[in-house]
């Protein structure tokens, strides 16, 4: 609404200025050529004096018209500045995400702690200092989300004046960020911008996709205020998608690369996750064996090198190279959603050999430690 109003007022003002100027120039040109003098003499009036008088009348008319145009332009600029201030203030008060005056809103994250997608969402919530509780879901029974038609994690439940279930980490992040910036929109309204689509993959299984999942839904003015350039927004979307489509898929082939690494990975998963005594033992050994062989199939599927670590190193260095030497983060001086996505994915490997190797053999460590501090200290609240 604000964008269209600004455009309308601005265009109308400039159009009136151009039209008035062209009419004035044409009128005075005719007067100077003598056409008006001849007409005035026929009525017994001095042509030169009439021309002068008419010029003064036209000039006074111009003054009034230009004053009106200035009012229109000023109104457009004022409206823009008002919206700019509103967006700026909204961005500085991101804790009031759900537009509720009380503190009764409760966020509950249903997750697997070692899941990259869940880690990515936690990184976002931690960075912006949004309080939430976690419920660890059993990978075996998934009893904790039996009530949900959506059977994947993460699932974020928001309970306040109304209860809302949010699915898919990227959609949740995009929708929440949209509401942080533009408080004229409610979260239920924004979620409708990311429609859910179901289809069947090549294996005959039903898969769910969400359109627009990487886009923060803003109008043109907000985009100009939040992003330093149009390319910055496109880069954020590109690297968020890259984290989901490529980086995440390099995790399994690397953490289950050898029988020893597969066993260590499942030991880590069992200790961090929710397993019963018997389930834990079965998951550790049977899971390690099965995922070791599955990782080999994934290696073929994604056409990875014989040493899959090299693909992981290359991917991480590609991201750091894209940031460049002049920027601290992909978002500049502060992390953007691409930084948080990549950090969340890499953090899922902490405690494993693959993570230690990435820290030692790529350029990522400085950036990673800066991201770790930013999320731990909730720098998004500043």
Structure description:
- With 382 residues, the chain is α+β, with helices and mostly antiparallel strands.
- 61% of the residues lie in helices and 8% in strands.
- The strands form 2 sheets. The chain has a 4-stranded mixed β-sheet, covered by helices on one side. The protein has a two-stranded antiparallel ribbon with strand order 5-6.
- The longest helix has 46 residues, at 47-92.
- It is globular and about 55 Å long.
- The two termini are 29 Å apart.
Give a concise summary.
The chain is built from 15 helices and six strands. It has one domain (108-377): Glutathione S-transferase Yfyf (Class Pi), Chain A, domain 2, CATH 1.20.1050.10.
User: Could you tell me how far the N terminus lies from the C terminus, measured between alpha carbons in angstroms?
Assistant: 29 Å
What percent strand? 5-15%
For the largest beta-sheet, the strand count, sense and barrel status come to: 4 strands, mixed
Summed up, the domain count is 1
How many H/I helices? Answer: 15
Q: How do the helices and strands follow one another from N- to C-terminus?
A: HHHEHEEEHHEEHHHHHHHHH
As a percent range, the share of helical residues equals: 55-70%
Strand line-up in the sheet with most strands: 2-1-3-4
In the CATH hierarchy, what is the class?
Mainly Alpha
Approximate shape:
globular
Quick one: how many beta strands? 6
- Low-pLDDT windows of residues: 1-95
Average pLDDT over all residues: 81
CATH topology: Glutathione S-transferase Yfyf (Class Pi), Chain A, domain 2
CATH architecture: Up-down Bundle
What class would the helix/strand composition place it in? alpha+beta
Rg, Cα atoms, Å: 31 Å
Organism: Chanos chanos
GO molecular function, one term: prostaglandin-E synthase activity
Family: Belongs to the GST superfamily.
Protein name: Prostaglandin E synthase 2-like isoform X2
